[in-house]
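HUMAN:
Just now I want nothing more than another pair of eyes on a protein record. I would be glad if you read both lines and explained how they fit together. I have put the entry right below:
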Amino acid sequence: MALASSDDKPVSRLLKNALVADLVMEATSQECDYLLTEPQNDDREWTNNLGRQLEMDTHGKMWEVGGVHATLSFLVRMIDTDLMSPWRPPHELVLCQELAHEATKHLGGFEMYATLLAGPTRWRRAGKIRAGCPVENLPIQLQPILKNALGSQLHGVLGNWQRWDIRKLRERRQAAIDAAAQTRAAAEAEAARERAPQGPPRPGDFRRPGDGYRPPASRPFR
């Protein structure tokens, strides 16, 4: 069965920022500052945010019934304990697969399959069950497939956190907002120039007919 954490204390502020980092970096409006100030003291918020970044279906029926929430809750605690204090990038794929192994090694067959169903389609295409495998041995077959798929996806998420520098998320977000504002201002200025009516030509812009042409010197009549 899924392992549930008995620790009720909130996760670290650094992990809370990381769990909404994708939303923060996509938001280019000052109105979205609340993303960095919400308390996030509910473990369902943590698992929903991590699940979204893992590209999992956080609203499907398997989330609660299949134990996916409990599995990710255990994973959240391990990430906070092992990686956030202190924050130690880069994170190798083997480390992420070790975390995924710890989070999934005690799952039953139904919970493993439910977690695979909640993940992106490529998770379920990443491995095959051995022909002739008895039903009772399905967890043994599914666990390596789930461990590798979840570990690889987690590796990508941690890579994003490193790229966004979650320790300076507010500053990185402000820089993104400023860059977006400059891009919009430049586009609006260009559009305004194109819409502006053309005024009368300036003296230097107009040439009289024949400008630059010298007729041949006239000769006297005979």
